[in-house]
Amino acid sequence: MTIHDLPAVNATLNALSAIFLTLGFIFIKRGNKIAHRNCMISAFVTSVIFLACYLTYHLGVKTVTHFVKPESFRPIYLVILFTHFILAMVIVPMILVTLWRAKKQNFEAHKKIARWTWPLWMYVSVTGVIVYVLLYQIFPQK
């Protein structure tokens, strides 16, 4: 594996995070708190590994891939990328607060922020995969 394989690894990690988030949501709706906790911790660990791989790639490659063609799709790609990037920064402290409240067993406060954290985290995970697919699979930039 080389540094150039990391975008695919990152997309896989984002997809895994989305899977863990989905399962965690299902488990808490069914009242299975232990499975919910395990899935949410797995989503967090997966996201931390993603961040490490993402930073390794971008610090190692030292170039930014620009979406140029097709020109007609570029605005759609940029909206997806921009919202993904902004929400990825916003979600980090929200995730930490949400997990901290759960760890402290302050479940009422946990539920209040989790209501916002979960959909934003899911959006960031799914759009991370979409960005990869658009940039590296559907419209590879030369």
**Share of β-strand residues:** under 5%
Q: Which oligomerization state do the chains in this entry correspond to?
A: single chain
Number of strands: 0
Major β-sheet, in short? none
Question: Structurally, how many domains make up the residues?
Answer: 1
CATH architecture level-2 label: Up-down Bundle
How confident overall, as mean pLDDT?
95
Please give the structural blueprint.
Layout: H1 6-29, H2 33-61, H3 74-103, H4 107-138
Helix pairs in contact: 1-2, 1-4, 3-4
Task: Give keywords.
single chain, 142 residues, mainly alpha, Four Helix Bundle (Hemerythrin (Met), subunit A), elongated
Detailed description of the structure:
- The protein has helices spanning 6-29, 33-61, 74-103, 107-138.
- The protein is mainly α and 142 residues long.
Briefly characterize the structure.
The chain has one domain: Up-down Bundle (Four Helix Bundle (Hemerythrin (Met), subunit A)), CATH 1.20.120. It is 81% helix and 0% strand. The chain has 4 helices and no strands.
